[in-house]
Amino acid sequence: MTAPSLTDFRALSFDCYGTLIDWETGILAGLQPLLAQTSGISRDAALKAYARHEQRLQTEHPGMLYRDVLAAVHAGLAQDWHCPGDPAADRRFAASIADWPPFPDTVEALRYLRQHYRLAILSNVDRDSFRATNDRLGVSFDLICTAQDIGSYKPDFANFRYLIARLGEQGVARHEILHVAESLYHDHAPANRIGLASAWIHRRHAESGWGATAAPPDGVRYDFRFTSLEALAAAHRQAPKPAG
Asked: Which parts of the chain have pLDDT scores under 70?
């Protein structure tokens, strides 16, 4: 079987937080007031605890808005770390998503890719929270699919079916979509099982563990691997262009 080329696809669908947005930096910045009340909790331990709470909440409450998930995660971490409960602090952490920064290569790479593909977002976020993020990304997306629109969170297959259907309405077939994401758990495992090609943006290539995401299932695969979005853009620049 011939390996796919980046020029085989008409649309790129992106996970946002962890792939385009440096969510671990944003999460840790938002947690600083809480972490300041503790002693000896490492960066990795904080991210792992965040992932545990987020995964549980998104599984148990698929219709919960992401900003409410974030507030509940913060409340759960405060309890875990024996800190006083503070609903106002929970809400401030949820609002901090607006301040989470793009990775340094994101904006320029998206502007390049926008010239060659339709661009879509498939994100575990609510509409209002993504609006603030969208301003930081520097491009206009052809399609934005949020957990709020769908009523469930990745890795639920419903999210990927929704993406495929909405892009289909724009004339893009399933085999013409390349899903681009960092999380093997949230994105690559379900995308490939539902028949989407995928590109792993391995942002954490220099670090151990899974950070703020759950560990992936055994056997997860992907069609491309890059350590940055700019590396994907560079590979597209160098890819043989179709004849004609």
From this structure: 1, 242-244
